[in-house]
User: What shape does this take?
Amino acid sequence: MTRSLSTSTFDIAAMQAHAGDAAQLLKALANEKRLQILCLLTAGERSVGDINALLDLSQSALSQHLAVLREEGLVQTRREAQNVFYALMPGPAAQVMHTLHGIYCAPAAAPAPRKRAGRS
Assistant: This one.
């Protein structure tokens, strides 16, 4: 069955104007480690040391992932003495991450992991 979308409920021009932005955001999120970093930041600001202690990443790999997140405008930083702190940048990415966190990371809401197609 196909459903017809009314132009009053679906703005084709807005979709076309923002599809590239959405694709770029999803590309930045399409990495498990970057998702884990962003998920940690949904609870609030964290230092690089805290993130490094919580995730199984080398300092070099963490720096590379944080650089991608900064370049994409998904995180903001502040420096306090020798420490650098990261936080989610307000906007679409933060909204997406809070939704994903509620679905996959919240203790009571976490569904059982699904098997991926083609894997045993």
About this structure: The mean pLDDT is 86. The chain is about 50% helix and 10% strand. The CA atoms of residues 44 and 87 lie 6 Å apart. Strands lie at 46-47, 75-80, 83-88.
